[in-house]
Design goal:
Organism (chain A): Mumia xiangluensis
Strand order of the largest sheet of chain A: 6-5-4-7-8
Largest interface: A-B, 40 and 37 residues
Radius of gyration of chain A: 16 Å
Shape of chain A: globular
CATH class of the largest domain in chain A: Mainly Beta
Shape of chain B: globular
Pfam family, one (chain A): zf-ChsH2
CATH class of the largest domain in chain B: Alpha Beta
Protein name (chain B): Thiolase
Strand content of chain B: 15-25%
InterPro entries (chain A): ChsH2_C (IPR002878), ChsH2_Znr (IPR022002), NA-bd_OB-fold (IPR012340), Thioester_dehydratase-like (IPR052513)
Protein name (chain A): Zn-ribbon domain-containing OB-fold protein
Helix content of chain A: under 10%
Oligomer: heterodimer
Number of domains of chain B: 2
Distance between the termini of chain A: 19 Å
Number of domains of chain A: 2
CATH superfamily of the largest domain in chain B: Thiolase/Chalcone synthase
Chain lengths: ~150, ~375
């Protein structure tokens, strides 16, 4: 068993026609990244157009490895809304698939113990409406991982 | 640039904790700047402003009883005012209008309207993909940029604190500064302040105050007949890079690289020609990254570059001579006050904090989360 995230997300706005494939996949805890079948470009968040080749007809939302590395992070000590326990780490994670996502980092008692470059793997928090929100924790499978 | 445009009036509204309305403060800023120029509302045929209302420039025109030939309400956070200088100069040179007022005012401290996060309309991607993670906006982005920079180049929080320490030194020379008379700030004060979004503490963050200001622009030809020594617009440049936390690949090289290069090229100068530098300091890291990106030092060098006191009063690179957003005033969008201080330095009006013989000044605004970047080069009319 992997440790579940210990926080309750705020309200997540409903999906629109562009983001529906992403959010539908989260119901099965599958992390997807939008990919253009015309030029191979991957982008996040999903858009109605490929920012590389301008295609609006070739955008897919395939599943991707839920792994990446911490690009940067910050530990927040004063939350922007009530009922959020502090401190907690918010990070940019560079997915193995390429794009950067914003996320929380879970799974460490001391959030300041994270380091840029740490390997991470996705973990999910279920939302009341059946969708799920991804966050990341240390990747135990990564061979380069430091203790 | 020809035929040339100049700033002929500059003023602040009341600053700090005013208890006044936005339009009351706007009126102070605009009428004081016009009086400084020897002009009145009747002379104004161009208005650029933000954050008055949904129809910001239109609102202000109505309030002042003006039907302008040109307006701009581009919302680009704190950099909008440097962008307005570029657009106003172009409109004046094209003959679309003759006298432009650029203004901003906020009563955010009195009105307690500042929030820590939650600024996204629910239909934009950031609302679905970023805001659920409870980052602070804009602070957490700058905090991650600071983390990236310190990690990549081996710098320390103590080195970064120099930006706030130097800003306080300048503020102690400016009676209008919020921290005037509050004594010096030490590196230990900054790093030991309340941690908000690591590695940035409360003392790495700008003030939250009321305030604002205005500048008046007209053709250089007309400027020479007005009461103040004209301050010529020598160059400008801008970049718009992101709204999201994830679009920009390298957090340590902001759009100021491009905006500054464009502005310096247009002005035909290099950073070595700049006597006074006014850059956006929403956070210590904002100013540090901007100084480096504008080319005043090499990549990865800014923390060593500023360590010798060169950005303090009497130093080789006078930076944020008003005390900046960190110790003078930060009304939410600081860009107009960068222009006001640059103009005053070039006119020699700055009293104890005057930079001797200042001939060229740069004002560099930053909006959002290192989202928008606009550089203006100003010079004494020769």
């Amino acid at each position: 068993m992997t440790a579940e995230p210990m926080w309750v997300p705020g309200e997540v706005p409903p999906a629109d026609e562009v983001s529906t494939p992403y959010w539908e996949a989260t119901r099965a805890h599958r992390l997807t990244v939008q990919e253009c079948t015309a030029c191979g470009h991957r982008q996040h968040p999903p858009r109605a157009v490929c920012t590389r080749c301008s295609s609006t007809e070739s955008l897919t939302q395939p599943e991707t490895a839920g792994t990446g590395r911490v690009d940067s992070f910050t530990v927040i000590h004063r939350a922007p809304r009530a009922d959020v326990a502090v401190p907690y780490a918010v990070a940019r994670v560079r997915l193995t698939a390429g794009p950067i996502v914003l996320t929380r980092l879970d799974g460490r008692d001391d959030p300041e113990a994270w380091t840029i470059g740490d390997p991470v793997v996705v973990v999910w928090t279920d939302l009341p409406d059946g969708r799920a929100l991804p966050s990341f924790r240390p990747d135990p499978a990564d061979p380069t991982k430091e203790s | 640039m020809s035929p040339g445009v100049a700033i002929v009036g500059a003023a602040e509204c009341d600053l700090g904790v005013t208890g006044l309305s936005i339009l009351g403060l706007q009126t102070q800023a605009v009428t004081r700047a016009l009086a400084d120029a020897g002009l009145t509302l009747a002379d104004v045929d161009g208005i650029a402003t933000t954050t008055v209302s949904r129809f910001s420039a239109t609102q202000l025109a109505d309030y002042f009883g003006i039907e302008p030939r040109w307006t701009d309400s581009t919302f680009a956070g704190g950099s909008a005012f440097e962008m307005f200088v570029a657009r106003a100069a172009q409109a004046i040179e094209a003959g679309q209008c003759e006298v432009v007022v650029i203004s901003f005012a906020s009563n955010q401290r009195s009105a307690r309207s500042r929030k820590l996060g939650g600024v996204h309309e629910p239909w934009i991607p950031e609302a679905q993909f970023e805001e659920p993670y409870d980052m602070l906006y804009p602070l957490s982005y700058y905090a991650m940029a600071a983390r990236s920079y310190l990690h990549r180049y081996g710098g320390t929080r103590e080195q970064l604190a120099e930006v706030a320490v130097a800003a306080r030194e300048w503020a102690l020379l400016n009676p209008k500064a919020f921290r005037y008379g509050k004594g010096p700030l030490s590196v230990e004060d900054v790093v030991g302040s309340t941690m908000i979004s690591s590695p940035l503490t409360a003392a790495d963050c700008c003030l939250v105050t009321d305030g604002g200001g205005a500048v008046v622009l007209t053709s250089l030809e007309r400027a020479r007949d007005l009461r103040q020594k004209p301050v010529q617009v020598l160059g400008y440049g801008e970049r718009t890079t992101n709204t999201s936390f994830t679009a920009v690949d390298d957090l340590t090289r902001p759009g100021a690289v491009g905006s500054g290069a464009d502005a310096f090229a247009r002005a035909g100068i290099t950073p070595a020609d700049v006597d006074v530098l006014e850059v956006y300091d929403s956070f210590t890291i904002t100013a540090a990254l901007s100084v480096e990106a504008l080319g005043f030092c090499g990549e990865g060098e800014v923390l060593d570059f500023i360590a010798d006191g060169r950005i303090r009063p009497g130093g080789a690179l006078p930076l944020n001579t008003s005390g900046g957003g960190l110790s003078y005033c930060h009304p939410g969008q600081f860009g107009v006050l960068l222009l006001v201080e640059a103009v005053r330095q070039l006119r020699g009006e700055c009293g104890d904090r005057q930079v001797p013989d200042a001939q060229v000044a740069v004002a560099h605004g930053t909006g959002g989360i290192l989202s928008t970047h606009a550089t203006v080069v100003l010079g004494v009319d020769r």
